[in-house]
Amino acid sequence: MSPVRKSELVGRPGKQADGSARTREAKLGCVFTQVGLDKEGRPQRDPDSTTYVGAIESSTLFGWRMYAEALRRGLDQAQTVIVLTDGQRYNHTITQTHFPEAVHIVDLFHAYEHLTLMAQILWGPEAQSLQAWRDLLEAGDIKRLVSKAGKNLPSSAKAKKSLRKELSYFEKNAPYMRYAEYREKNFFVGSGVVEAGCRTVIGERLKQSGMRWSVRGANAIIALRCCIMSGRFEDFWASRTSYPPLLSRPPSAGNRPKCGDFKTVSLIALHDREKEFVRNLHLCVSIRRGLRACLKTHQFFARRASISRIIAR
Q1: CA angle 289, 290, 291 (to 5 degrees)
Q2: What are phi and psi of 30, to 5 degrees?
Q3: I need a surface site. Which of 43, 165, 174, 215 has the fewest CB within 10 A?
Q4: Which segments of 103-200 are extended strands (E)?
């Protein structure tokens, strides 16, 4: 979830006490390649293969975004395609629409969280899920798990409704929770890569103190972060055949603006295409009420990668 401006929340229900919302869901997906097993026999990914896509948008658009990234990464050549999700309904739709031949796995650790929620509904907020439940879950025996957990329904109607909702989560996702089978095939059963990406790609940049985003601004930063974290920033610039300058020509000595001529801040940057430097940076600032200042800096060199880190930080 990303904090956004009030204008971006009009008519949107939320989880606040008054039913209002303060955030919008930022969806993030990643694609990576599994490269066998590590020394402990666990599935191992190629860390340099991970690429990200994300945006604040509908699940339909996000599904196409994920599909396009998977195609770019060689979906058609993959021997086995695995889709790891949290079990939400729209993720099922994305998988069925764009990856019908893939092995769909519901993240084991999200399933653990739902077990804990069931225990808290039955025995209080400090309760932990029973080991017997966890064993059944890891074995993929969802039918017995639902039977055991649903034997003693709580007395209150609200708690009973909540428990039935959690039981329904396991019943609907049972075909995608065959964890013992997946582990025998050396498949990943946890979505820790994308969960970590939610923190590093989105959370560290969009959730800083006092931030409130427009959807357009947030999506621009998310796109930049995904580009950088996917190792594509230089490739993006290399793919651009032309870099039109902000002005048709640099200001000469005769027509260069003087201090006090501006009521706004003007930034003139001319791009050196060969050396990839930003040159001839002129910043002319005029402050009303008599306080005026002018700063002119020549030969200001900064590589684009450094600029990107400053923007994305």
Answers
A1: 100
A2: -140, 155
A3: 165
A4: 103-106
Q: Estimate to the nearest angstrom the gap between the alpha carbon of 13 and the chain centroid.
A: 22
* Contact indicator for 188, 82 with CB cutoff of 8 Å: yes
Tell me the domain boundaries of the chain.
2-206, 243-300
CA distance 258 to 300: 20
The answer to whether the CB of 233 falls within 8 A of the CB of 305 is yes
Per-residue DSSP letter, 76: G
Q: Give the residue among 243, 239, 297 at the shortest CA–CA distance from 274.
A: 243
3-class secondary-structure state, position 95: helix
Residue ranges in the chain modelled with pLDDT below 50: 245-253, 255-313
Q: Residue 26 has what DSSP assignment?
A: P
What pLDDT digit, counting tens, does each position of 263-307 carry? Answer: 333 333 323 332 333 333 333 233 233 333 333 333 333 444 444
Question: What one-character DSSP code corresponds to residue 75?
Answer: G
Strands 277-286 and 292-297: antiparallel
Contact between 299 and 269 (Cβ < 8 Å): no
Give all strands (DSSP E) within 76-232, no chain letters. 82-85, 103-106
| Beta pairing class for 43-45 and 34-37 | antiparallel
Cβ within 8 Å of residue 121, ≥6 positions away: 154, 159, 162, 163, 166
Edge-to-edge order in the sheet of strand 292-297 = 266-272, 277-286, 292-297
